[in-house]
Design goal:
alpha/beta, Rossmann fold, two-stranded parallel sheet, globular, binds zinc ion
């Protein structure tokens, strides 16, 4: 199995070091590779790449499997940080299930990338997400809560993800997503998306309720007050067993 060699890593860092560009997206974001190391994990043997950027102090990372430099059709998953879900295993969202499924899948493949983007809480930050949760405890739905705090319902931006893929010299990707809009965004920033891999979660006691609730129809999670709320990864959850959904039914989840 081919993997990133130390020479390739050194080459990538040295080349990236001289990189200059106008920046991508409305914020004209530019990123630089700062460090690369091996990262054996319970999901497989990866490399981890740390990036800096010219917009904020956020340290986005790429978790890489195999030889992806200059590669085509690389499976890629974009994951937005969710401390409560990813670390604590919160059941207010299914971020951890989404992340684990992606790492397991890519860990078992020849190559692939998980971009771990530090845009917590749909881009509003951790403390504001907790404020929004608190408003939801009081009966507001996710959108109402975000608007009450002065945010749009989604503050995420994938320009930084696009630049990270350019920095890693990936030629084309197969995006692991259930959300065609994510493909559009990356394409706008010059990423060659050659295909989509549906992101289907294995069913478990925590996500199986999707199959039993109106989630199958609306694609929305239902909170403790029976109010629909938004999925934090911008990917409507598809659990094994929902696979019989056709492409157009999946699309309808977004309308
Ligand atoms: Zn740049
Ligand atoms: Zn989450």
């Amino acid at each position: 199995m081919s993997t990133l060699t130390h020479e390739k890593i050194q080459e990538l860092i040295e080349e990236d070091c001289c990189h200059e560009c106008e920046g991508l997206g409305g914020d004209k974001v530019c990123v630089h590779i700062e460090a690369i190391a091996e990262l054996p994990s319970r999901f497989g043997d990866f490399h981890i790449v740390g990036f800096s950027n010219n917009r904020d102090g956020k340290e986005h990372v790429a978790i890489i499997k195999g030889e992806i430099i200059g590669a085509e059709n690389v499976p890629v998953r974009l994951h937005s940080e969710c401390l409560t879900g990813d670390v604590v295993g919160s059941l207010r969202c299914d971020c951890r299930d989404q992340l684990e499924a992606a790492l397991k899948k890519i860990g078992s493949m020849e190559k692939g990338i998980v971009l771990y983007l530090r845009q917590e809480g749909r881009g509003i930050g951790l403390t504001n997400k907790i404020r929004a949760y608190s408003l939801q405890d009081a009966g507001l739905d996710t959108v109402e809560a975000n608007l009450a705090l002065g945010f749009r319902d989604d503050e995420r931006d994938y320009a930084v993800a696009a630049h990270m893929l350019h920095s890693l010299k990936v030629k084309s990707i197969q995006l692991m997503t259930n959300n065609p809009k994510k493909i559009d965004q990356l394409t706008q920033h010059g990423v060659n998306v050659s295909g989509r891999i549906p992101h289907i979660l294995p069913s478990n006691e925590h996500n199986i309720f999707y199959l039993q609730t109106k989630a199958a129809k609306s694609g929305h999670m239902i909170d403790f007050h029976g109010k629909p709320h938004l999925v934090e990864q911008s990917d409507h959850t598809i659990v094994e067993g929902m696979k019989e959904l056709t492409e157009s039914q999946v699309k309808a989840l977004y309308d």
